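Action item from last meeting closed. Structure (534 res):
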């Protein structure tokens, strides 16, 4: 039944008989209600206006011009305060309204079945036309194209719900997800595609599977590089490093060729993250600034270890800086680290913080146990599963699009331009902040100088990794400290001549070098580039 609120009825001469007429309202036998409705409606709080034909025609003309409707007599049969911004009141189909009118108003219609069928067909055509128009308008708004490589990796399962929740790109940004992997993983990806649709996310425009190299990264706005599974056994570190080149060369070429000009590339995972990001900058030089390596996972591990020691929560610890190789030889810097909402004798408002190092009185734990714990996690990859990898990638993307928290330091692997004395041409984790859709290295931080030996050990490892991967160096040589002991797990530097040669290689990439070849760049044992996609 109707609510007891004022409504406005207009009774035209006859029901509509054209598609444009029937599109405006449900075809009602309103002409039967004209003179007989006043006695029923007025006592019940309704207003009935028997408009003169001249007023109705004038109102009809203005309304149809405003909405670009065509008509013969009157396309409006039943309306609810249309002239005051209201919407037409629809009561289902014609039969439903006749039942309603006969039950409550005591009126009926003698309209023939044939005429009702004609009007019903016109209504259906108008409805289809409207829906097609809506879809056409919707297609004009391009969703954000997100590509996930190695989508069969466990991290992808945990990443997709975060991406579709609106937490990363915003609650008003629709996304289209493409799951990219090799042909052997297609059945697995189909299952993941179905599960993604089952999330019923209002921000998910589409989800699809791609196993074709030619179509990879088509108009991609975001590319997420996950850990790629190894299809063959690798016996030496050098072979493992060189095995990363073919896929990174292929990805770099395809991103340059197919992706959007402003594409953002994130390299995540727990194996050779810096190296893969550096190789991508080599093979996709035009977007080198938009290729980053995610370091928040290692940062999270460090914060969790500190939180356990201080008996607080990891989210209360800020400004832990990760330097160097994210998935290998790194340096965890606690000199800027602060803890908020810490329960101690000194207490303050939510924005009050205390230096972490001033609260840990056990220096032996910081220099030995803490370092050993993080070193073990980095070496074995334990506790860096799908959940942590997905959360680290999603948080980094969120910061990239919406900015990092004010006054907070974020660790990120970026292509070095010589900041902090780091050799150019390698991807190195360093302190940054996100703002205005980009990242900025925090070169103005005070008291963050790192000893030359530690910096040398880290940079040497990364430079050697890249040279070995490209075949310019046969063997990886662990860094030798001044006392002559090998410090492969600590950190490295490279002779100036090699640095200059590597810088030249990175900046002067020939376009022909970007095209995926059947074999590796150097005569070292490698898989053909496209074997993984056959």
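Sequence:
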């Amino acid at each position: 039944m109707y609510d007891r609120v004022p409504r406005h009825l207009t009774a035209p001469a006859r029901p509509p008989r054209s598609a444009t007429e029937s599109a405006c309202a449900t075809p009602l036998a309103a002409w039967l209600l004209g003179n007989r409705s006043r006695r029923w409606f007025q006592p019940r709080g309704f207003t009935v206006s028997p408009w003169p034909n001249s007023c109705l025609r004038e109102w009809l003309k203005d309304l149809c011009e405003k909405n670009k409707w065509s008509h013969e007599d009157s396309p409006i049969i039943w309306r609810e305060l249309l002239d005051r911004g209201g919407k037409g009141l629809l009561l289902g189909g014609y039969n439903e309204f006749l039942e309603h009118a006969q039950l409550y108003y005591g009126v009926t219609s003698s309209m023939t079945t044939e005429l009702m069928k004609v009007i019903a067909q016109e209504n259906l055509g108008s409805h289809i036309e409207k829906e097609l128009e809506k879809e056409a308008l919707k297609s004009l708004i391009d969703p954000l194209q997100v590509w996930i490589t190695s989508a069969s990796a466990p991290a992808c399962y945990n990443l997709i719900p975060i991406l579709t929740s609106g937490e990363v790109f915003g609650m008003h940004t629709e996304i289209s997800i493409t799951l990219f992997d090799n042909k052997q993983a297609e059945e697995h990806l189909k299952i993941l595609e179905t599960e993604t649709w089952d999330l019923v996310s209002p921000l998910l425009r589409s989800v699809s599977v791609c196993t074709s190299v030619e179509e990879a990264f088509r108009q991609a706005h975001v590319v997420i590089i996950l850990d790629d599974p190894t299809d063959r056994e690798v016996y030496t570190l050098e072979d493992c490093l060189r095995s990363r080149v073919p896929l990174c060369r292929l990805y770099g070429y395809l991103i340059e060729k197919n992706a959007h000009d402003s594409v953002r590339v994130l390299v995540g995972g727990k194996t050779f993250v810096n190296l893969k990001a550096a190789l991508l900058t080599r093979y996709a030089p035009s977007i080198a600034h938009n290729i980053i390596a995610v370091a928040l996972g290692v940062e999270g591990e460090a914060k969790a270890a500190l939180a356990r020691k201080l008996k607080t929560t990891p989210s209360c610890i800020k400004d832990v800086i990760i330097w160097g190789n994210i998935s290998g030889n790194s340096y965890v810097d606690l000199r800027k680290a602060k803890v908020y909402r810490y329960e101690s004798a000194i207490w303050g408002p939510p924005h009050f913080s205390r230096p972490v190092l001033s609260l840990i009185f056990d220096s032996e734990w910081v220099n030995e146990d803490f370092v050993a714990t993080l070193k073990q996690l980095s070496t074995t990859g334990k506790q860096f599963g799908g959940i942590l990898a997905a959360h680290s990638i999603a948080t980094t993307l969120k910061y990239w699009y919406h900015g990092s928290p004010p006054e907070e330091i974020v660790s990120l692997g970026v292509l070095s331009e010589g900041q902090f004395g780091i050799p150019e041409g390698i991807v190195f984790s360093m302190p940054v902040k996100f703002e205005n859709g980009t990242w900025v290295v925090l070169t103005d931080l005070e008291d963050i100088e790192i000893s030359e030996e530690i910096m040398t050990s880290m940079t040497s490892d990364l430079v050697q990794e890249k040279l070995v991967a490209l075949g310019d160096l046969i063997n990886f040589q662990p860094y030798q400290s001044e006392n002559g002991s090998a410090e492969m797990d600590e950190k490295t530097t490279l002779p100036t001549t090699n640095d200059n040669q590597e810088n030249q290689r990175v900046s002067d990439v020939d376009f022909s070098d970007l095209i995926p070849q059947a074999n590796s760049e150097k005569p070292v044992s490698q898989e053909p580039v496209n074997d993984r996609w056959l």
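Note appended to the action item: Residues 1-35, 73-82, 485-534 have pLDDT under 50 and may be disordered.
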